[in-house]
Design brief:
Strand order of the largest sheet of chain B: 2-1-3
Keywords (chain B): Ubl conjugation pathway
Protein name (chain B): Skp1-related protein
Shape of chain B: globular
Largest interface: A-B, 54 and 55 residues
Number of strands of chain A: 30
Oligomer: heterodimer
Number of domains of chain B: 1
Strand order of the largest sheet of chain A: 5-4-3-2-1-6-7-8-9-10-11-15-14-13-12
Number of helices of chain A: 17
Low-confidence stretches of chain A: 437-444
Pfam families (chain B): Skp1 (PF01466), Skp1_POZ (PF03931)
Number of helices of chain B: 8
Structural class of chain A: alpha/beta
Helix content of chain B: 40-55%
Radius of gyration of chain A: 31 Å
Family (chain B): Belongs to the SKP1 family.
Distance between the termini of chain A: 55 Å
CATH superfamily of chain B: Potassium Channel Kv1.1, Chain A
Strand content of chain A: 35-45%
Low-confidence stretches of chain B: 1-15
Helix content of chain A: 25-40%
Shape of chain A: globular
GO biological process, one term (chain B): ubiquitin-dependent protein catabolic process
Number of strands of chain B: 3
Radius of gyration of chain B: 19 Å
Order of helices and strands of chain B: EEHHEHHHHHH
Mean pLDDT of chain A: 77
CATH architecture of chain B: 2-Layer Sandwich
């Protein structure tokens, strides 16, 4: 006997789904679009979504509560890359699923959308010389499955022969992905025997991090434009590194914050004089731990008792650390620290703080109100925003119990907001409040035009188009909002133009006749997305209001105690009613009307 | 309000520690007594008691009719509330209620067939008893363990997209309510 899960009211349904593990949730989300939307509304998120391509395609997911899940995709059939089976592995065991054929790409997109995953964390290409046909198939599979989807890291870590088929395969992968990934991890230089210009074209992209077993020449390194660069083997000798340091001090590799290289020198004692020949520097003999983050999430600790400080001509400083290893191997680290904030930001970011709210208020100043997920409150008021470059050189910081003024070097306001959001892992601005009133040319209609196309919810206190052509406000209202809350008087025609899921009209002053007209329009099919309408109406005689409201409308009265849940302006609200009027529109959709007579 | 019971009163558990008792009448006219601590687990009932101004003196003379819950479900609910009335308040689960194991007593109580469980959840939702809701949901969640998509389609009676569309079409063809 079946359990009618999807006939449950919304709250118990979601509670029941939250009791399931990831494999079951994925399985349910695959059953129908209604199921997928319901699982999606649980707001589950992932820490990692890794796609590995070898003989099969595997997907490795780590959700934000740390349970691990690996989906190994099998049964992909040529020519349509269609999937009819999966092996699902979790810490506790594995299970084989068979189902109707699905396109692999559609399946990956569904999975990412269900888990609100904006990008693939990493694509790991693990093919090794298995034959040209198989490589071609596997490469076409990757193209089909993930082309156009954002990818954070490309990983070509598995050792491969750069001269063989796998080398060609790696070159294809680099050409396909290197322009749209932030991080690049390479087991080798797949263009080793070819024209160096090709690998340099890859390296000169604005990566956030490159990690490689190389080997790269110093000219290749000088072409990189990555923030962090870690070379585990290199063609560079100490002389080359000396040349690199000199060029860095003259201004090359401006984005570089961290560089490490692992190499070999015949005589360890002569290493330092060769490295620093002709380089102005100071030596600091002190035990210290240096900590930095590379490739987005790997923390590198270096303990050393001697550091060499150098400074380039634009004032940026760097620390050079070197460690000699047995067998005359050595590692050299160059850590540029003058842009202290980027290093600090990565470290603070790794604390995984998150926010409940990131509200931006624009009045005479711009203020940012942040509410962290552990309830502490913090408001930042941005001052010193300078035209024309919108650059910021000061902040007033308010926290519970204190306020403080900060002054710093100028930063672009947009970059600053992006950094703040990235540090706190905040995917979107929760709310933008525009509080400008008649201060000049920057009027409210400008803000409405600017933001209404991206926002899910719209709250407004005045109609900037008042007295003007009503078509303008209707153009705003007809956007697909999830919720609109208005304190201005709109006409019934304005409301008929809305396409929002919920509407709160808090300062409306409609007559009951207007509402009767609206109900009739709704029953005939207008406002098809509307799920909730909260509206005030004024009528001289409360007793006759209901009769007028329902004139000419087919309805049914009910008097049982019911509880409904609706999501209004992003919040779950519960409505309890003991009497209500039910109506049905011609497409079968039903609505419940309740009314509360007020004394004034 | 007083209603003559048509069936004998079901005394679920004698309450010695707290003398305040309330009477509840189910939709099929079964009468149940429940202690104050137990009834507080139901937000709906407790709101009703507070709004009606029921006190220790007049509580038993004013039975509370609950028209949406039948006697069978009410009996389970009263048993559950009496069992858990002194439990420590648990933190509210905002997003995840995953990590807990159902106690044996409650597993026995909820070992009922699927339709009965469905009706019990509707009643629990109506009476707003979070703990019982969490436990019922755990039972539903456990049904899904290690099942494949097609097995889950059968267990939960989930229609395909095509079946959903057909259902919607047939709903829109049926006549609407009339006044």
């Amino acid at each position: 006997m079946t359990f009618r899960l999807f006939h449950l009211p919304q709250k118990p349904l979601l509670d029941a789904l939250r009791c399931m593990e990831n494999p079951e949730l994925i399985a349910i989300s695959m059953l129908s679009s209604k199921c997928r939307e319901t699982v999606k509304s649980l707001n589950l998120s992932l820490k990692r979504f890794v796609v590995t391509v070898n003989r099969k395609m595997s997907i490795y997911m780590i959700d934000s509560v740390d349970s691990r899940l690996r989906l190994s995709v099998s049964g992909i059939e040529m020519p349509g890359f269609r999937l009819n089976g999966l092996r699902v592995m979790t810490i506790g065991g594995s299970n084989d699923w068979n189902f109707e054929e699905i396109d692999i790409r559609k399946w990956i997109e569904n999975l990412m959308s269900t888990y609100h995953c904006p990008e693939i964390t990493s694509i790991e290409i693990q093919r090794t010389d298995l034959g040209e046909l198989e490589d071609e198939y596997s490469f076409n599979l990757v193209c089909h499955a993930v082309e156009g989807i954002k990818v954070r890291k490309l990983n070509l870590d598995k050792p491969m022969n750069p001269d063989g088929i796998a080398g060609k395969y790696a070159q294809n992968a680099l050409e396909l992905f290197s322009k749209r990934t932030k991080y690049l991890s390479l087991s080798c230089n797949p263009y080793q025997r070819e024209d160096p210009v090709k690998i340099q074209k890859v390296l000169m992209q604005n990566f956030n991090g490159i990690s490689s077993f190389g080997p790269f020449s110093i000219d290749d390194i000088l072409m990189t434009n990555s923030r962090t660069l870690r070379l585990n083997s290199s063609k560079t000798g100490v002389k080359d590194l000396n040349r690199f340091i000199k060029l860095w001090m003259a201004g090359s590799n401006p984005r570089l914050r961290f560089f490490s290289v692992f190499d070999r020198e015949a005589e360890a004692e002569t290493l330092l004089p060769k490295l620093l020949r002709g380089v102005p520097h100071i030596t600091i003999n002190k035990w210290r731990t240096y900590k930095t983050i590379v490739m987005g999430d790997e923390i590198i600790h270096v303990h050393n008792n001697r550091a060499i400080k150098i400074r380039r001509k634009d004032g940026r400083e760097a620390t050079i650390l070197y460690i000699t290893l047995p067998d005359d191997n050595y590692i050299i680290y160059i850590i540029a620290i003058s842009m202290l904030s980027s290093k600090c930001r990565e470290i603070v970011k790794s604390l995984n703080f998150s926010l409940k709210k990131f509200d931006v208020t624009v009045n005479r100043n711009m203020s940012i109100h942040m509410e962290s997920s552990v309830y502490s409150r913090l408001a930042l008021r941005v001052s010193g925003v300078q035209m024309p470059g919108f650059r910021l050189n000061g902040l007033q910081v308010f926290a519970i119990g204190s306020s403080n003024d900060w002054k710093f070097e100028e930063i672009d306001i947009r970059k600053w907001i992006e950094n703040l959001m990235s540090t706190y892992h905040c995917p979107e601005i929760t709310s933008i409040e525009i509080q400008r009133t008649d201060l000049g040319e920057l009027e409210d209609d400008y803000s409405l035009k600017l933001f209404s196309k991206y926002a899910k919810f719209l709250t407004f206190d005045c109609n900037p188009y008042q007295g003007d052509d009503p078509v303008k406000i209707q153009k705003t209202l007809m956007q697909n909002f999830d919720g609109v809350k208005s304190r201005v008087r709109l006409s019934i025609d304005d409301i008929l133009m809305t396409n929002s899921r919920t509407l709160n009209m808090h300062n409306s002053n409609f007559g009951v006749k207007d509402l009767n007209r609206f109900i009739k329009h709704w029953m005939a099919g207008s406002n098809p997305r509307l799920e909730f309408l909260d509206i005030f109406s004024k009528e001289a005689e409360a007793d006759t209001a209901l009769a007028k409201l329902l004139k000419g409308i087919k309805y049914r009265k009910t008097e049982k105690l019911r509880v409904n849940e609706v999501i209004v302006m992003g919040r779950n609200i519960q409505i309890k009613w003991s009497r209500a009027i039910e109506i049905r529109r011609k497409d079968g959709k039903e609505a419940t009307i309740d009314y509360i007579p007020l004394t004034t | 309000m007083s209603v003559e019971p048509e069936v004998p009163i079901v005394q679920v558990e004698e309450v010695r520690e707290n003398p305040v008792l309330y009477k509840i009448i189910s939709s099929d006219n079964h009468v149940f007594t429940i202690s104050e601590h137990a009834v507080k687990l139901s937000k709906t009932l407790w709101d009703l008691i507070t709004n009606l101004g029921l006190t220790a003196e007049n509580a038993l003379d004013n039975p509370i009719p609950v028209e949406n819950v039948n006697g069978k479900n009410m009996e389970t609910i009263v048993q559950f509330c009496e069992r858990h009335k002194y439990d420590e308040e648990e933190p509210e689960y905002t997003n995840y209620i995953r990590e807990f194991v159902l106690p044996e007593w409650d597993r026995q109580l909820l070992s009922i067939d699927n339709e009965e469980l469905f009706q019990l959840i509707l009643a629990t939702n109506y009476l707003d008893i979070q703990k019982l809701m969490d436990y019922c949901c755990r039972v539903i969640g456990d049904m899904a363990k290690d099942k494949t998509p097609e097995e889950l389609r059968i267990i939960y009676g989930i229609p395909t997209d095509a079946e959903d569309d057909a259902l919607e079409r047939s709903a829109s063809d049926s006549p609407g309510p009339s006044g």
